[in-house]
Automatic annotation (TrEMBL):
Keywords: Carboxypeptidase, Hydrolase, Protease, Signal. Residues 41-65 are annotated as: Disordered. Residues 1-29 form the signal peptide. It comes from Xenophilus arseniciresistens. This is Carboxypeptidase regulatory-like domain-containing protein. Residues 48-59 have a biased composition (Pro residues). The lineage of its organism: Bacteria, Pseudomonadati, Pseudomonadota, Betaproteobacteria, Burkholderiales.
Length: 181
């Protein structure tokens, strides 16, 4: 007898596999409603009025493991209300960083005018509200993923004496700022 084998998808990189898993995981991350068990009377028992249906049991959505979300990404930095990850050097890390952009309120991209990626960019972030948060960091790669509270921010990026400034409203859908030098 010949046994058949199920074809497995092939992934060219770890980042492609991670992206595929995260897409599959998001389909599972919805709440699942499961009906409660129903008691069945033994055979030969006297019939009784049908009981009212029990309320459904709602199970919480499975939470993604932090390690799975962080796979392929640089270590998070910062403390308090602003945390960041900068990287994207190498195709696997670049792919992982771009896939993670949708999970962060603000992403920063750094490149030359011709599109070549840049690293070692000085970044200063400050909230426009008085008494708001501020943070300075050195972008070690062309992509920075930031987790920060909702609000309006001014982002300054400097490289080789050239400074670019952009404002952004954070909150709701993820936002991306593209800095070209």
């Amino acid at each position: 007898m010949r046994q058949s084998r199920t074809a497995r998808p092939s992934f060219k990189s770890l980042a492609a596999w991670i992206t595929a898993c995260s897409l599959a995981g998001s389909a599972l991350a919805q709440q699942v409603t499961v009906p409660a068990p129903v008691e069945v009377a033994p055979q030969g028992a006297a019939p009784t009025a049908p009981p009212s249906p029990p309320p459904p049991v709602t199970l919480p959505a499975p939470s993604a493991a932090p390690a799975a979300l962080d796979a392929g990404l640089p270590q998070a930095q910062g403390s308090g209300s602003i945390q960041w990850r900068c990287g994207g050097i190498g195709s696997d890390e670049s792919t992982a960083m771009r896939a993670a952009m949708k999970a962060h309120p603000l992403s920063l991209l750094f490149a030359r005018a011709d599109g070549a990626y840049l690293a070692d960019v000085q970044v200063d972030i400050r909230a426009e509200a008085s008494g708001g948060v501020s943070q300075s960091l050195r972008a070690s790669g062309p992509v920075c993923l930031l987790s920060l509270p909702p609000g309006r921010y001014v982002v300054d990026a400097s490289l080789g004496g050239e400074r670019k400034t952009q404002s952004v409203q954070v909150g709701g859908a993820p936002r991306t700022l593209d800095f070209r030098f």
